[in-house]
Structures are given as structure tokens and as C-alpha cells.
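batch_manifest entry 22 of 60
target: Response regulator
source organism: Occallatibacter riparius
requested by: lab member K.T.
priority: normal
notes from requester: please return C-alpha cells only, no post-processing; we will run our own comparison against the previous entry in this batch. if the run fails, retry once and flag.
--- input ---
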Amino acid sequence: MAKPKVLIADDEKLIADTLALILNQGGFEAQAVYTCKRALEVAPAFQPDVLISDVLMAEMNGVDAAIQMRSLLPDIRVFLLSGQTATADMIARSKAGTMGFEVLVKPVHPQELLRRLHNAAVQVRSVA
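--- output ---
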């Protein structure tokens, strides 16, 4: 069975690359990109099961990118990364919250990240 695919979008390259490394070692096929625009370009060919996107980025924020990503890939699970509790609360109450996007507060512990993503991947694959 193929590994679940995760696309990571974060303008902090160290964070994006570290998350990809953790996920690749944890049973996923993960790819890191450094802008939301690039994530939207890569997604049609990569066909991720899960998107992890930082919220606050230049050009396009993670919420807007996730909404566009959901129109490209309707079954994708979305996790929005936020380093600020107030931003995480705002996301939960916004349209993103009603779309079923989940919030990960930075810094996220690797074991917690793997647990949540394994659960998400199982749910995505049972729907597909």
C-alpha cells in the first residue's frame, strides 16, 4: 500500500524541511515547499492526502491557500500551523474552522504530529 502523501507549505525553510524529514521517517511521503503559491502549483501532480500550511506567509496566507487547495483536491485533509494562540483561535472560528481545517500550534511535538497525521490519513483513505 502506498504511503500517505503530505504537502508542507511554510516560508520558514528549516521548519518545512524538518517537518518533511520527520514525516518521511514516520511512514509518509512528504514534500516541503516554501510558499502557498508553490503548494498550489505542486499539488495537482503530487496529489497529497494531507496539506500542512503555515498561516502567516507572504503573497498568500495559509487559510486562502487551503481553501483553494480544497477546490483542487476536495478530499484533502488540511492542518494549519500557527505560532500564536490568538491566531489559532481566530482560525477555529473562521470559515477555515467550518471547512474542517485543523489547527496545529507551533511548536508541535513530533509524536503528536505523527499521531494526528496517521489518524487523518486513515480517515482520508477510508473515504476514497
